[in-house]
Design goal:
It holds the Pfam family AMP-binding. One of its GO terms (molecular function) is ligase activity. It is an enzyme of class 6 (ligase). Residues 13-71 form the Acetyl-coenzyme A synthetase N-terminal domain. Belongs to the ATP-dependent AMP-binding enzyme family. The protein is an alpha/beta fold and 645 residues long. It has 3 domains: 10-69 and 272-514, ANL, N-terminal domain (Rossmann fold); 100-247, Rossmann fold; 534-642, GMP Synthetase, Chain A, domain 3 (2-Layer Sandwich). 31% of the residues lie in helices and 24% in strands. It has 20 helices and 30 strands. The strands form 9 sheets. A 7-stranded mixed sheet has the order 5-4-17-16-18-19-20, sandwiched between helices. It has a 5-stranded parallel sheet with strand order 7-6-8-11-12, with helices on both faces. Bound molecules: adenosine-5'-monophosphate-propyl ester. The site of adenosine-5'-monophosphate-propyl ester has 22 residues, from α11, β20, β24 and β25.
Amino acid sequence: MAYPYQIKTQADYEKAYKKSVEDPEGFWSAIADTFYWRKKWDKVLEWDFSGPDAPQVKWFQGARLNITENCLDRHLDTRGDQPAIIWEPNDPDEHHRVLTYKQLHQKVCIFSNALKNNGVKKGDRVCIYMGMVPELAIAVLACARIGAIHSVVFGGFSAKSIADRILDASADFVITCDGAYRGNKVIPLKSVVDDALVQCPDVKKVIVLTRTHTPVSMIKGRDVWWEDEIKKVETLGNPPCPAEEMDAEDTLYVLYTSGSTGKPKGVVHTTAGYMIYTAYTFVNVFNYQPGEVYFCTADIGWVTGHSYIVYGPLAAGAVSVMFEGVPTWPNAGRLWEIVDKHKVNTIYTAPTAIRSLMAHGLGFVEDKDLSSLRVLGSVGEPINEEAWHWFDEHIGKKRCPIVDTWWQTETGGILISPIATVTHTKPSYATLPLPGIQPAIMDEKGQEIPAPQKGEQVSGNLCIRFPWPGMLRSTWGDHERCRKTYFDAYPGKYFTGDGCLRDGDDGYYRITGRVDDVLNVSGHRIGTAEVENAINMHADVVESAVVGYPHDIKGQGVYAFVITEKEPDNPNLARKDILETVARIIGPIAKPDKIQFVKGLPKTRSGKIMRRILRKIAEGEMENLGDTTTLLDPGVVDDIKQGKL
Ligand code: PRX
């Protein structure tokens, strides 16, 4: 079955884009018609980006459906025996696993029944903290099947981060593993959950999957084994698990992400619009053809895994490869070995992975057969030209289009990206908005900058002026926070937090990076305020300021300026203590790359830290610090400059 909405030519794209702007309801309802509904909608779209309760966004109001019937059941007759998930383990010597649509459907139904037996009901929040095993996808889909709201927490977050998320979402259930394999490490997930749950007495059940045989403490009455719960369902003869009928706007999941304040927010995605948007963008951006093997290297703990390992590909009936390990273990050829082994047609990865593999040389690439590849994708951060060309030449052998996909946790799916085989690509440009996406570039005064003429470029802050089906609907438990964060800066528009440049010659967009206090470290989104709060928890620390700086592999590194009670006797040990504190409070992913002890921070008379100056110092730009006369004590800057790492 081909996809009726697949864009095959530039003319198709232009026609689809025009229709999506002139008649968005007609455009999206024609696509939605190709999905399976228990009941169709009464109204396609109702929205408000500027009122006091903004955002109010409802797609496909009145429709009834279950996303798993679209991701699983409806494929059973047409491609029941086709692989849905090919799972590649961390250890290349362990056998890979293939789950066909029939098998995945069956496993999801069984685990759905196990969840129900454990008291999980529609609307309940379920925190999932697992490694990249097929059961993670099964757990996510089982929640969706019974109408429970999943909140997946990436395996690199600390016990405290898990506890904060469980408490914020009032999750009563947790699904985890004894441990997870990542490269040569074993991460004791259950033990981290146990530490988290000391702060979460309301959690009723923890379901634990065996993966690593790491010793765990199972608490009576609270903790149960995944395998035992499955057996209980199986001894009942695997009763069917009819999917719960959901409203189009029922919450599908909550996913926590960092912003410019200290506390991560739970981004809320709902059911129908998200499903249609992820499937539509998956099929079009990657020019996916039925039966092709698609491999996204992300972790399901991040939005990329939600939208483009699980929901988008499965809604499109694709073959989705899921990888447990890391690109550099046992060696830097692992991703290419997977491409070779499973005859992957599309690989979707992050610039940080490409840069780190580049650094290991071509030896790990040249002995692999990459001839199955047809499309390459990049996501998570700006891709620098060097990495783009390496990907193009050495992986795509100059015959595979690279889609540089720009989007965010909040957007649910890709917004600006080339369409593979259709859009002419240009290194470091995400190129053009997908159908349905209406970008606006804003200046500092809040005015929209007109489209650039030929030979001209404009830059400013990137907003989106019209709703799209996959967008966030709220932030969990605090709708006003959603309005303030995304709809206040530019009234009537969604503000992305990213800066962008547009080239008048081709109308292409280039994303230049965050304009707020959010860092993008190895494609992981980290709030500077969050890291500062964590550093400040250390007993010896008085105050700190965290900024990003350009890092060859990670894209951005974390640079922390720290004031301590007294000068540390052993600065190296003091640095390690601070790193340990950050790992405890947030997780190892947020550990600063550099810590500089300082006596003072550059502050204005009103007490605001001038991060602009710290950013320049961290970047090594000592000369051009701009105006420092408004500082309370300009001498501080010289001290910091002298001590620069
Ligand atoms: O700054 C942009 C950057 O990643 C941010 C979103 O991060 P997160 O919510 O974690 O989602 C990442 C995966 C979708 C954006 O605000 N970003 C993402 N993709 C690109 C990008 N920057 C430049 N080019 C991209 N292709």
